[in-house]
Amino acid sequence: MAKFDATLKVLALSSVHQHPDNIRDDLGDLTQLASEIKSMGVMSPLLVYPHPDRAGDFVVQDGNRRRAAAAEAGLTEVPCVVFPAPTAERGPRADIETMLSTGRNHRPLSEHEVSKGIQGLLDLGMDITTVGKKFKMSRKEVQARAKVARQDDGVSKAFSAGRLGLDAVQRLQELEDSSEDPTLYERTVSRIENLAHGASVENVERTIAEVEREVAKEKVRADLDELGAEQAPDDASYSSKWDRINSENELSYDGHIEAGHVWRMEYYATEPTWYAKAAKEKQELSEAEKLDKQVQAKLNGMLAIVARQRVAYIVDAVQNKKADEDFAKKVMVEQIMFASRYEDTPQMLLGKIVSNEYPTEQDFDSRESWRENVGKFLARWPLAKLALVLKLVSSSQTEEKLAKLKGFERTSYERDGFHGGWNGVREYYELLADQLGYELDIDEVEAMQYSAKAEPKRNREMDLVENPDEVTATCQECSQEVVADSEWAGFCVNCIDDAAVSE
Fold first, then answer.
1. Residues in domain ParB-like N-terminal (predicted)?
2. Which of these CATH numbers, 3.90.1530.10, 1.20.120.430, 3.40.50.150, 1.20.120.790, describes 7-109?
3. Backbone angles phi, psi at 219, to 5 degrees
4. pLDDT tens-digit readout, 467-477
């Protein structure tokens, strides 16, 4: 067992000093802690070690908030666990590790304070992998925290103030590292800095998309100005004096200029829209119609950005958030009821499963009442059982077919990926066997063997039962290989048919 090289002492508060490199920017509200200390004393001793520059004094390694609260409560002495002075190499690193560990377990450190501590450890020589393992962070998170702690720009300030989350910071850092145009990052940060309440990662994505579009439009405008292209008037998109040039007319910028076309950058576009003088004036739009056109143009541009954000959010939420089982059961019940809605067969099967017979001869209202009651009943079942019921109800048409020999019919077109015919039957029997432990009846086996024998060109890999008297043979007429039995006459089905016709 490791030796505990420390002593418990009561020290004068005046001799115990706050750590000079405490990673906390703010000790927070000490009112409640000071009140508890005043009534009960310091229940958890401070961890201290000898001050490197002041003989007889000590530095707090853990307990800076307790020390400050004890002073606020009027205490003159505090209990301390006194450790030996740390080594020059290990000391600062051990202090920051302790602050990060205990600070995150007591009054939580702010995101900026955690990042400052991470950068401190890296500055003292601890590698990224070790920091990540010690504090359960990914390598990417450690790098992001270190970078934001080092920088003194708008992102760092917004992060320090709590107006940007770490995920938003990481997205901005990715933009800074990957963008070939530095102004894209600078303009995005400038815009986010002006948001009064900060920005989520979704807002950051939207801002990046908007700035990217603006930068692209500015470049196009500069190119068109250099070519001497004439800009269309503001009302060209809805004025009767101008005709829009169809996008199918793929002319170069020079081609449009030679044709006398004028250009306009629509709100949502990154390429110019070209216009030509109208051959015949159209009916002029009213002011309300003009305003409506402008609103439509703006919304079309923004909704495309929002759609990308929404999909990204959905993907992240599905991958990282805990699923709501009650919601899953509700969806499953809805799917069961939908799968059985328009046919009697699945509803009859469902009625038998829940012991509430489907009213086949009743009126519409009675059936709707039955469906409502069945839905409420199913909602109480476990999710796994609902999934099985859904699969069975969806397969009920297959069940109905198997009441006749024709349902076991085989064809020469059987292949994986095709869900009709025998493929559907095979999948249904496999479901019954795997999930319900069903074993084939002797008559089912015979029906499968009979149908298999009747179609020698079937896909034999899809057989569910063995056909023991079958052999592979060669037709005496056309030489193709066929599946035959002990009573085979030597000719395939086609050759037998041809012989019958010739006779």
1. 9-99
2. 3.90.1530.10
3. -65, -45
4. 876 656 667 67
